[in-house]
């Protein structure tokens, strides 16, 4: 087991928070594998120190500073910086097999059985199920594969601008060649899928093992009141994060991670996102007070917004409301 590891990537201090929660969630579920965090140069030293407390190995990946082909590749395709940083996971050749997990994922139960799978195993992407989602995948570190991935990036670019596009082009037979490389969806459950197929979520959601907070707004963009255990919305709420998983993320972050950050940051300020009602009463009040109610929209308008993927997930189209409606149909 010592030659197998979970690997994640944090490119800034926000994603570092995600990586901290992810690592802690893997530990809470007693993984027997090693934990590796790749960090970019923009992650502050106290954040790296917190990561070192949770992860067995924290590795700085500075593509700009590297003497390898990634540096050359980056000069030709500067837009693919984060992608090349992610591909560095293939250079961890002191491990025979690894599971990569995005920093915006959260583990809900032990998933060590993923190491029974081979490269490249991943779950379908909810938006285009013939593509795999690159938020969770099993791979074999290899400098040769790493080199080929960089070459492929330069040659063909990325059809979605990120690593998922490159990886799907590179492992192009994933959809058809070997069903054992299709991870069940419960290893990479994204909220967007919950809303697009709610009855399936009601049927299978309880088996979820990994939640992936896909989309622009991430758990760390919210604020959290630990006293009332409530998550407060983000003003530009185009989010589709499931409130139940969002709360789980914040519960872990506020109880296990924030204390570590307080120790490492010391007198240096850092953004925890936690609302401390007792200490800064007036400031806290501003954070917890609800935003003004949105103007009422017609059901036609609402329908077209929904169809454009702009559901009011925290309000009228909240999971609870949809569930209530669905229950009334199913009765
Ligand atoms: Mn992600």
Automatic annotation (TrEMBL):
Gene3D superfamilies: Spore Coat Polysaccharide Biosynthesis Protein SpsA, Chain A
Chief place where the protein resides: cytoplasm
Keyword Signal in record: no
Top-level taxonomic group: Eukaryota
GO cellular component labels: cytoplasm; nucleus
Keyword Metal-binding: yes
Listed InterPro entries: Glyco_trans_8, GNT1/Glycosyltrans_8, Nucleotide-diphossugar_trans
Cofactor: Mn(2+)
Pfam families: Glyco_transf_8
SUPFAM superfamilies: Nucleotide-diphospho-sugar transferases
Function: Glycogenin participates in the glycogen biosynthetic process along with glycogen synthase and glycogen branching enzyme. It catalyzes the formation of a short alpha (1,4)-glucosyl chain covalently attached via a glucose 1-O-tyrosyl linkage to internal tyrosine residues and these chains act as primers for the elongation reaction catalyzed by glycogen synthase.
Family note: Belongs to the glycosyltransferase 8 family. Glycogenin subfamily.
This protein's name: glycogenin glucosyltransferase
Organism (species): Chanos chanos
Gene: gyg1a
């Amino acid at each position: 087991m010592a030659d197998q590891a979970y690997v994640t990537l944090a490119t800034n201090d926000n994603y570092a928070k995600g990586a901290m929660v992810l690592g802690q969630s893997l530990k809470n579920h007693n993984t027997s594998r090693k934990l590796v965090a790749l960090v970019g140069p923009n992650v502050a030293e106290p954040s790296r120190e917190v990561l070192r407390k949770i992860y067995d190995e924290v590795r700085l990946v500075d593509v700009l500073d590297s003497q390898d082909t990634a540096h050359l590749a980056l000069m030709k395709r500067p837009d693919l910086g984060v992608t090349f940083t992610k591909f560095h996971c293939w250079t961890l050749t002191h491990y025979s097999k690894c599971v990569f997990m995005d920093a915006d994922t959260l583990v809900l139960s032990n998933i060590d059985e993923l190491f029974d799978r081979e490269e490249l195993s991943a779950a379908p992407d909810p938006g285009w199920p013939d593509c795999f989602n690159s938020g969770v995948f099993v791979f074999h570190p290899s400098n040769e594969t790493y080199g080929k991935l960089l070459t492929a990036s330069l040659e063909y670019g990325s059809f979605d601008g990120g690593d998922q596009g490159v990886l799907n082009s590179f492992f192009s037979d994933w959809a058809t060649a070997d069903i054992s490389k299709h991870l069940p969806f419960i290893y990479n459950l994204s909220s967007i899928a919950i809303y697009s197929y709610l009855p399936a979520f009601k049927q299978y959601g309880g088996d979820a093992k990994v939640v992936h907070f896909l989309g622009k707004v991430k758990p760390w963009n919210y604020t959290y009141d630990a006293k009332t255990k409530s998550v407060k919305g983000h003003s530009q709420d185009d989010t589709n994060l499931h409130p139940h998983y969002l709360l789980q993320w914040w519960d872990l972050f506020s109880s296990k991670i924030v204390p570590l950050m307080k120790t490492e940051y010391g007198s240096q300020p850092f953004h925890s996102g936690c609302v401390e009602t007792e200490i800064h009463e007036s400031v806290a009040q501003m954070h917890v007070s609800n935003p003004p109610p949105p103007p009422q929209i017609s059901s036609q308008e609402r329908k077209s917004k929904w169809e454009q993927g702009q559901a009011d997930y925290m309000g009228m189209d909240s999971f609870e409301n949809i569930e209530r409606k669905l229950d009334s149909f199913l009765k």
